[in-house]
Amino acid sequence: SVSPLEIGWQLDQQIWSRCIGAVLVSATMRALNSFHYFCHQVGIDGKPESGTQFLALASPFDYQNQAELLIPAMKYEPSAPQFTEYLIEILPKYLEDKKANLVLFSSYWQMNQVAEALSSEFIKRGWALQVQGESSRQEILKKHKKLVETNKTSVLFGTGSFSEGLDLPGELLENLVITKIPFGVPTSPVEQAHSEYIEKKGGNPFMQITVPDASKKLIQSVGRLLRKERDSGRVTILDRRLVTKRYGQALIDSLPPFKRKIEY
What we know:
alpha/beta, 7-stranded parallel sheet, Rossmann fold, 264 residues
């Protein structure tokens, strides 16, 4: 079978060049505070002379007063062999002062390793742990809601699918922990070929694809915290690369304007 590496030109031929006008709306259309990545993906000419207009509206949320972004000092990067053990050691510290918690992982393997290692400690502390995949999402959320409403500590462990489309308003989520920047790995032949294509053109697939895509995913992830205007809480990202790598500041700046606490 054959698959195109990029579909923007097809969308342009079949949709944009044929329509008189189109309005596209999304909460996560921008990456790294720019529409450029989206335009490239969908084949839209983003130049002013093309007639394309962009509008980014301010959020109704009072991020500065309602939510905090915490980036704690970490000993290891997620790629380090010791990272999972280190995560097991420090994670309870970032859960102990909140009742409604969601921890997002980038891999099922790491999520299950951490869950298995911490299950007995969570039981001792009286925390109820639910791990994605053990029950249906509906059953997990139903139990989570019941626990929170009875003033018990509930901890949800989830992966990528829990970072989008998950609605936990009000007291149902007050503490979000993201274990690492959600970088994708080009595992499919199409993704690998796309990276090679960009390299042959003299580009940098990591900066042109991987970082913008991670920016969109990170925005989606932190978007789980505040769902209504009166919601409040904390986002903790356990990835030192936000501070130590040159792309880190751009990822931070693309997030909502939380009150920041960076322990570096």
